[in-house]
Amino acid sequence: MLLEVPAACSLEMVGDVVEERQAGVNAGFFAGIAEEWRDRVQAYVDAEGSPSAVPTWPDIEYKKNSFLNLYLSPKDGSVQGNMLAAMRDHKLSLCPACGEAGAPNTLDHYLPKGLYPHFCVTPYNLFPMCDACQTNKKDKTGDAADPKFFIHPYFDVFAANQVLQLTIEPPFDAPAFEFGAVPQLPAPQRALVNRHVKELGIVQRYARFFRNQHQRLLRLCQKLREEDLDVETNLGFFRDNAAVPTRNSWEHVFYSAVLCNADMLVYLRDGDFPDYR
Ligand SMILES: [Zn+2]
After folding, report:
1. pLDDT at 275 (0 to 100)
2. What is the spatial distance between Cα 238 and Cα 243, in angstroms, rounded to a whole number?
3. Other beta carbons less than 10 A from residue 24's beta carbon
4. How far apart are the CA of 131 and the centre of ligand 1, in A?
5. From ligand 1's centre to the CA of 228, what distance in Å?
6. 257 in helix, strand or coil?
7. What is the mean pLDDT of residues 243-265?
8. Residue 6 Cα, ligand 1 centroid: separation in angstroms?
9. Tens digits of per-residue pLDDT, 160-203?
């Protein structure tokens, strides 16, 4: 999903962090690289975080830990510590990278801090992510054939729309699920979505969810029938309710697939359900 841009300014963060370092042992180092650091953050923003367009910074490798400590052990009340605390204090109820329900409890570095330590406290490079996504993402960014694996949560504005699509194939009492990018997307965006899904292991995680969700759906439709309520209308309520904050939530993708499938709706209205309900 597309996230609102961070409240803290990524460029001002450089100046504020350098200023705070002026009382410490790294004062000279940070003062010496401040201008280039700021330029590199600006270049990140200009390139929208695209891995192939944002270079690493070999000259600061010997001071890598000084950067990483800004993120890993910020002092209470420090400028980057306050920024990190504010980003962790989000209101999200699902992971913006995969759409699975549950408050994401970690921050991800879009460009990994091990390769790009100078972006470890750059707000534009940080966003909430679930543990499952982070475990799969690790230090990956892209490769020679496909330089960008992941949708950027602040710059890839097309992700504000539904970009994931499920197709449900009969038999509807034990269906097969096909899952991937929305086919109507332009080819580059479709390729990015499919790579993102693959690299974060979303297909395997969705498969279990969809199987369970299908059983819940049959139980729900049985109830609707018993109460003489319209199946399609009520499933529409469930779908619309799951569209906030993103139409890429797992439930919304599921109910959208059901409601787009005329044959399945006939089955849900009139078919014989299996006994496992
Ligand atoms: Zn996730």
Report:
1. 79
2. 9
3. 11
4. 7
5. 38
6. helix
7. 97
8. 19
9. 999 999 999 999 999 999 999 999 999 999 999 999 999 999 99
Spacing, Cα 199 to ligand 1 middle (Å):
11
Strand ranges for the chain from DSSP E: 106-109, 126-129, 164-169, 176-181
Q: What is the 98 CA–ligand 1 centroid distance (Å)? A: 4
CA-atom Rg of the chain in angstroms: 23
Taking residues 23-27, what's their average pLDDT? 92
CB 198 within 8 A of CB 191: no
pTM of the predicted structure, to 2 decimals: 0.93
Residue 48: helix, strand or coil by DSSP? coil
**Cis, peptide link before residue 171, omega less than 30° from 0:** yes
Domain ranges of the chain: 10-137, 161-270
Q: For residue 84, how far is its CA from the centre of ligand 1 (angstroms)?
A: 19
Indicate the SS3 state at residue 230.
coil
